Amino acid sequence: MTEFVTAIESKNISLEFANRLLEAAVQKGKELGIPFSIAIVDKVGNLKAFAAMDGAPVLSLEIAQNKAFSAAAYNRATHEWYDRLKDDPPLLHGIVHTERLVIFGGGYPIKINDELIGGIGVSGGHYSHDMQVCEAALEVASEFNSKVV
Amino acid sequence: MTEFVTAIESKNISLEFANRLLEAAVQKGKELGIPFSIAIVDKVGNLKAFAAMDGAPVLSLEIAQNKAFSAAAYNRATHEWYDRLKDDPPLLHGIVHTERLVIFGGGYPIKINDELIGGIGVSGGHYSHDMQVCEAALEVASEFNSKVV
Amino acid sequence: MTEFVTAIESKNISLEFANRLLEAAVQKGKELGIPFSIAIVDKVGNLKAFAAMDGAPVLSLEIAQNKAFSAAAYNRATHEWYDRLKDDPPLLHGIVHTERLVIFGGGYPIKINDELIGGIGVSGGHYSHDMQVCEAALEVASEFNSKVV
Amino acid sequence: MTEFVTAIESKNISLEFANRLLEAAVQKGKELGIPFSIAIVDKVGNLKAFAAMDGAPVLSLEIAQNKAFSAAAYNRATHEWYDRLKDDPPLLHGIVHTERLVIFGGGYPIKINDELIGGIGVSGGHYSHDMQVCEAALEVASEFNSKVV
């Protein structure tokens, strides 16, 4: 007999961890000499922590949040979208209009031991710079992966 | 030494359970002879399951969803708001403008063993009818509370 | 003498039928091993019934509803749009911005004996998967077509 | 001869200072034992820094941001609105519909030597709690006022 399941258990990013990632991202931004906006969202895409570096362009505030949302809400890094779209014209012309969906680099899922717990989004430079900032933050996350028992 | 917490564990309503509550709500609606809209959301207020009974007024579609959202997003039954607002004029004139917040009856948090796992919202009758439909559904939930070990 | 027409009769999907389609769609989703969001709307595109399978990506909740809306609101399966747009640049670059319009697969009109009574929209996989789920549900609808006298 | 003025100089909150205020607010939230959302905006109301404490209700995410926006965008603490509205019916029934305007406590301008540089908004408890959290953060700001030469 199959058991009736009333609720599904899952993990969600803590503020403490979100702030650690934010700090690493800001540090990387300073190294690159570019003022970025950096957003951390929880596993359903709700804002958890945010920082706009001094001088970050106004447009970057929302793009960073949308990238983080996109990454968590579809469990896919935003730079992975284009390869899947480029030879699929209906998607290429269609899905890009989805509200808050960003299909260029700078948004990554945050995972602990392969479980999605949140997302990070960065905006302010070319997306190749934004991606470097995300990756610097996610290195912090990867350290924690090895520590979790 | 305090341990660093990367993620918070929590429970979220399953589709199976949401459908069970929906079924009980529709059943109660038929007994009352009123066509209701009934929405079940997860613990962060995202839509999980929905049914509009045949003849449900168009306005009820969104109100039901907003009630369920309100109940989950603030962990409070919607009919409990007014008592807290009526002698607090700034809130009474202010918080009612919050997007998607409903302050009259027909939205309830769904809990298992006191943990919030979702919300239910009903619209279509006077809110006193809407509340009866919610309560009929939540009786199903309460049965499961006693079963959880 | 021409008769004066005060009102037009039409058919609209019942909740009972919508739930039957929803159930078949969820069943197909389980077979594919992908968590989908599935929306059924009535003939004017208003939400009738909805289910988000456990683990369905957050983005899929709204896309599923928009696909169902698109299908009913234009009486056209969403995958049929691109062929009509691709050699018509004004439409290709213009109509895709229409709010809630989806132009890739996963949304179908629901008809009984060729009369539009609603729409179904599915999201969660590639649109080719989403289409399979819709088609599984619509097979149920086709059984009813043959039964109607 | 009057000099032609091409641009106006102004001060805006730094990320470093915003984070200091955020930290003090989170600390106060822990003391009160309530999970708050805390938003810091710059002098034009754009998001500068944000933190959602673990367990903060979903509704608080946006209300906190709106309070901070209201405070900076009108250079007025949100709890000061109601006294100005209560005997002015056109405003009382009209201005409360302004998008993002919050008229109950929990939003404060941030000033250095009487110059507006940003805003703070807190949500999660009754607004009297939200105000305590803001005030704890603004004490940090007042320390800096005395230091400025």
TrEMBL record, chains A, B, C, D:
Cross-referenced InterPro entries: GlcG_carb_metab_protein (IPR052517), PduO/GlcC-like (IPR005624), PduO/GlcC-like_sf (IPR038084)
Name used for this protein in its record: Uncharacterized protein GlcG (DUF336 family)
